[in-house]
Specification:
Blueprint: H1 3-16, E1 40-45, E2 51-56, H2 60-87, H3 102-130, H4 137-154, H5 161-171, H6 179-193, H7 201-211
Antiparallel strand pairs: 1-2
Helix pairs in contact: 1-2, 2-3, 3-4, 5-7
Amino acid sequence: NNYAEFQSKAKRKLDAAGYWKYVAGDEYKPPIIPKLVESQTHTGFDGEGNEITITTRGNEVEVNVAKKSAEAWLAQDKRALAILVEAVPGPKLYVVEDCKSAHDAWEALKETYEPTNALMAITLKSHISSFMCGANPVAWRVEMMEKYQRLRRADAGMLPDHEFAKCLITNMSQSDKWQYCRDILLEEMTKSEQGGEPLKSAFVLARLQREE
């Protein structure tokens, strides 16, 4: 389930083509077409027994005007829907095949796949936070990087880069061989927490790799 990756790519493609405002976001303002209320004619009698006809006016005119005004917007919406459907993998088309608008398709995909990604992200964050380095620092570093990349694909905001950097330092090897490296990184982490520049994971990973 690479919904986060799909979502990012689809949004960029729609935005570049000028269609994102027909899908979601601050500029998403679909036309409002009122529900049709048809004019009705009622026949009855007045107080003197005379037959009378009363016509209750509907809103046919207003609905037709609204539909006419919405034609251009709906045409663009149809193009946005086509772009979005084209981006959906074949086995997943059933999710959007009954959607009548790009917005409905976007929400259907989000509802179907985002909860799974959210759970995956929570699980990965927990693993990263508790995954201590064992006897093989190289394998640990590589696995931490892979887990973080998967987490970023599932939810880019779940664990910011500077927090991942702290996890690397906290969970790194506790052996005497790594004491000097560990002291340097702990000092950098302290400086960061005291108001310095956010500690970058790239810096920590590079320092770990040099020590290997």
